[in-house]
Amino acid sequence: MRMRDTFIKPMHPEGRKFVAIFAAITLVLFLICDPLGWIGVGLTVWCYYFFRDPERVVPQRPGLVVSPADGVVSLIEPAVPPAELGMGPEPLTRVSVFMSVFNCHVNRSPVAGELVKMAYRPGKFLNASLDKASEDNERNALRIRLDDGTEIAVVQIAGLVARRIMWWKKDGDRLERGERFGLIRFGSRLDVYLPDGVPPLVGIGQTMVAGESVIADLGGQTHGL
């Protein structure tokens, strides 16, 4: 890897207009006062890195569930999947990954399968690290069915600063493990609901890399199809 590639990452197209806005404001700040201009430079660089979209090396072994987001595991607990997905009233193990404003915010599919249902629901903008954010906050939920019939849910949740959940998939689409499916601006959380009987392989406080870090292994588990 070249030294330049360590610092310069590809940027998601969604970020171009924001970087342009930050850069324009920075030019105005330089006209007012040099110190303000340099603050603007720092914020412009931050905006660029917020929308970075680096390539990831996705594990290929069958049965692995990877993290849908960069960030830190903030919660692991039993919870009922969002009612709008129609996955029943029984609690499943929910693994929550919290993204700060410094993480990459491009979201990736945790498994390969068919997007059976996607459902958006408006809501509040509480701190995404809180447990009740799963119930009260704006969210976009995905129900993914693997080839063997196993189903997993992944939910994009807006946070205190986030004000826009984005996605570019629709019901019936095929998702590959680690494939990009959405993005959240700015600072938020993703929940993954594992199939019944599948234990998580991560712990609270563990750092996740979207599309690379393994959350669980479906292989060899009895989880009812």
Question: Could you please describe the fold and organization of this structure?
Answer:
This protein has 225 residues and is α+β, with helices and mostly antiparallel strands. It contains four helices and 13 strands. It has an eight-stranded antiparallel β-sheet with strand order 9-5-6-7-11-3-2-12, with no helix packed on it. A three-stranded antiparallel β-sheet has the order 4-10-8, with no helix packed on it. The chain has a two-stranded antiparallel ribbon with strand order 1-13.
Secondary-structure blueprint:
Layout (H helix, E strand, L loop, with lengths): L2 H5 L8 H17 L1 H17 L13 E3 L4 E9 L12 E8 L6 E3 L4 E9 L11 H4 L2 E7 L5 E8 L5 E4 L6 E2 L4 E6 L2 E6 L13 E2 L5 E4 L8
Antiparallel strand pairs: 1-13, 2-3, 2-12, 3-11, 4-10, 5-6, 5-9, 6-7, 7-11, 8-10
Helix pairs in contact: 2-3
The biggest beta sheet, please?
Answer: 8 strands, antiparallel
- What percentage of amino acids are in beta strands? 25-35%
Number of domains: 2
Q: Which structural class matches the secondary elements?
A: alpha+beta
Low-confidence stretches: 1-6
What is the residue-averaged pLDDT? 82
Walk across the major sheet and give the strand order.
9-5-6-7-11-3-2-12
Just give the CATH class of the largest domain.
Mainly Beta
Number of helical runs? Answer: 4
Q: What is the helix/strand order?
A: HHHEEEEEHEEEEEEEE
Q: Assign an overall shape.
A: elongated
* Terminal Cα span: 43 Å
